[in-house]
Design a protein that fits this description.
Blueprint: E1 2-4, H1 7-19, E2 24-29, H2 35-47, E3 50-55, H3 75-84, E4 89-91, H4 95-98, H5 117-120, H6 124-139, E5 143-147, H7 151-163, E6 169-173, H8 193-199, H9 201-214, H10 220-232, E7 237-246, E8 261-269, E9 272-279
Parallel strand pairs: 1-4, 2-3, 2-5, 3-4, 5-6
Antiparallel strand pairs: 7-8, 8-9
Helix pairs in contact: 6-7, 9-10
Adenosine monophosphate binds next to helix 2 and strand 5.
Length: 280
Amino acid sequence: MQTIQSINEMQSHAISLRTNGCLIGLVPTMGCLHEGHLSLIDIAREKADKVIVSIFVNPTQFGLNEDFDRYPRILKEDLALCEDRGVDIVFNPDIADVYPKGYSTYVNEEQVSADLCGVSRPNHFRGVATVCLKLFNITRPDYAVFGQKDAQQCSMVKKMAADLNLPIEVLVGPTLRDADGLATSSRNRYLTSLQRSDALTIPNALEEGKKLVEQGVRNVDRVVAEVTHHLSQCRRIRVLYVRVVDRETMEPASEIESGKHIIVTAAWVDQTRLIDNIAL
Ligand code: AMP
């Protein structure tokens, strides 16, 4: 496995791989890798000849009072996990190279990213779109793999790829969960064991919503009320949003259709912001 920090080196290496007919799969991450990330690496492996994992805690997608400074950075462990999983290249650029002094170009997707986390995290998706486009330009992937856990991010990246005619296929892997149902997340590291067991209320509440739909309920407000009620039973949890949306476009549902809609939620568990979603 190669580790590359230099943007120029990564870009020229990617170009020469492509010239030699290699299909490149990219898994963009912020590190602190867990089973969710590793499952995306497996998806990239199936499709591509060379798998690149980028590890970059992207400052432009964090708000002023968010957790950029305390975001867990454990590069050594990440590299060992990548090596074990058969990754070919880890691309781990420096912030000062990605955003040199005077940097002033940003990408805004203005539809998919407008609502939900776009409201509670202003500028978050601008940062994500910008860094993804930069990573795509540097690593030249045929495939870029993202996780369904960040459903709005997946839709936004697909929309950006379509709108900007990027020659990239965006693949989405299913949400990996711990045995008890909590979606794996780098931010789960912030949770004490009490907070972690309360965080389980999130997947449980989504399951309650799905149960209603399985019983034949099609009314969006009823499902949202059920999930919100379940979440509000836990005093550590502060709900940011619960919505039923189209899984591709993130547009609000008016009447629930199985296979088309998902319930999405974001909530604080004390000081930790978690997101999750469930297909209906
Ligand atoms: P992050 O490092 O949190 O920016 O995530 C990098 C990629 O991993 C994103 O595409 C996420 O959607 C994906 N990811 C994060 N958690 C999970 C999970 N539990 N299951 C599947 N993919 C995930």
